[in-house]
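anyone seen this seq b4? input:
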Amino acid sequence: MIFGVGIDVVEISRIKKTLANNKFAKKILTPAEYQYYQNLSNSRKIEFLAGRFAAKEAFAKALGCGIGKNFSWQDLSILPDKLGAPICSLSTKLPKKFPTKLSKFNCSISHTKTLAQAIVIIST
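predicted toks r here
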């Protein structure tokens, strides 16, 4: 059963402005995501960070709570599988905040030269 659906779009230029300050990347990305991010070229870093920003916003919308008290940037890690598909992994503390058993997460991230977009479907 579908618990929630979320979608988000972010302007890549907005994310590009943050690259001079690694604090933003460390705020948005989990340690595992940040390690992956560090090995990317500068252009891919922008796309990766913008995509994760949009996907985490979309995930929070699917939860129905937004980014804040009940869901933080660090509660979700999104890394590519061996074929490049984004795989969502929840922090161990997030399920305690939501009484419903969240068991399946579908995420798709897409980029153009100017936009990054993500959609998330959460099922129980």
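Residues 78 and 91 are 11 Å apart (CA to CA). The domain at 2-123 is CATH 3.90.470.20 (Ribosomal Protein L22; Chain A). kinda curious what u guys think
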